[in-house]
Fold:
Amino acid sequence: MLSHVNISLESLNIATLVPMLIPIVGALFILVLDLFKKDQRKSMYVMLSLLFVMLDFGSLIDSSIDFNTNGTILGYFDMMLVDGLALLGQFIIVGASILFIPLALTSKRFHEFSYPEFFALFLFMISGFQFMVATDNLILIFIGLEMASLALYTLIALHNRSKSFEAAVKYFTMGALAAGFFAFGSMVLYALTGSVEIHQMAAVFNADEFANLPFILVGVVFLLAALGFKVSLVPFHTWAPDVYEGASASMAGYMSIVPKIAGFVVVMRMFEFLIHSGVVWLNVVLYAIVIVTMTAANIWALVQSDVKRMLAYSSISHAGFVMAAILIGTTQANSALFLYWILFTFTNLGAFSMLWISRQKNLAAGQSSDHSYNKFAGLIKVAPISATIMALFMLSLAGLPPFALFWGKIYMISAAVSSGYVVLALIMALNSAIAGYYYLKLIIYMFMKEPEIDIESKVYTMNSSVSLRTIIGIAAVGTVFASIVVNPLIEFITAFVYNSGY
Amino acid sequence: MMEIGLTHYLVLSTVLFSIGLLGVMRRKNLLMLFFATEILLNAVNVGFAAISHYYNDLTGQMFAFFIIAIAASEVAVGLGLLIAWYKRHGNINLDAMSSMRG
Structure:
């Protein structure tokens, strides 16, 4: 018989749940509002979601103050774990969401934004990602991952184009496979340790000194494959370019940032003890994945004829670059990961918003795809401001000195050098150089070439509205003036990472 | 009479998982592919229930319940996508989904 269960309310520590509950409440509120009063204006829903996400951000600031005074906070039978990684991950997730939601306020009408469900799903997705980073329990990670992914598949499919359905189905099949891998990997690790919490697994493995090494490796490889699908590491990246091309540009930009940081935080929790366990085989596998992801994605990006696909491969390559931090595994490297991703958020937000702003209804004659290179040929003559801003983001992605990503790259490479990974640092630098080629290719198209196809100049700012221009402005300011905030940002991040023991 | 122990369940689970994996890789019909992913997840359920019994710890069964819930919601989304695709194209063949290449 089960004995009577008695739990005090304080031990649950409900405060740890508040940041995730706010978007859920927001989503339900939007759905209920639609029940009572149909046909609200789109901007109403946008503002409501923005309000809830900002509240979420505020509650995160509150818990980070709590973290700074009391250290790591546990709640709900140790299911919830609010440490520095969880907070930094959530800051990026929620902050990026704040910047992406206003992209729905386009001047052209889009099918998906007329549904309140779009915004409800968006908020559910945010809370799913938040759950994923704020725990070290594999059950909750799995639920958060699936909650977010299922909402994301639907959001992609809502963009009413034939390619979007194809993208959603492809992403869905890959995601279902990844879910299977994750479940199987956790099963193997549960069989070995009798626990589904990462820190207890680490304790068991360290106690018996990795006695069942082959089985541990099987479990870890399955988990790595599952998370590799989500952060698009190279053998598991095949869905990424197609899904980015099929999804709307704003959604593609969102996908290149938020799901990946959630994935990276989980990978970091998982691999922190494995990397330092001295199992050579694991280091070799991770090393190989990092290098192949960086290099192969760069080479594929060289041959693309569509800017959006090029940006898809470029984000795969950036993901490989950032995975190097997990391989290195020092506090400096882990902080570099977060710094890099914050700077990458601004740059990629800008690049994808520039594509979003120039979205056409129909392709012009001689144009092979929505954002083909030749669409941007001679842009400087037709729309000089657009061309300059686009070039700015491309230079930042290439890692040119004063712009945002340069600081991320330099800090990451110095983390690699200072822990003795000189060859890795060299490969990273070399890859940045290769990547420069395809970013500069777009700039050459925009600045040096004559217009190739007959497109009216208004196409390039077709979708433009005040909110879109504001977001692009924020992204541009973040990209140009990053050098001023980099130092305080590093200190802020390092304190969080160091205090949570990574 | 041979006693059926944990190993048997784990082998069963692994075999089922392999069948599911093979299905995901080989099937071209979208509906069959969804079936394969269900096999994939349910194979893991068998394993979790067995391990949970072996350790006399309820966590594994809890995990299995959550996997059932996730599998159900995954099918709901998947079938929705499938119907939307079928309405547009009149087939559910994976090979037909090749408008994007490169």
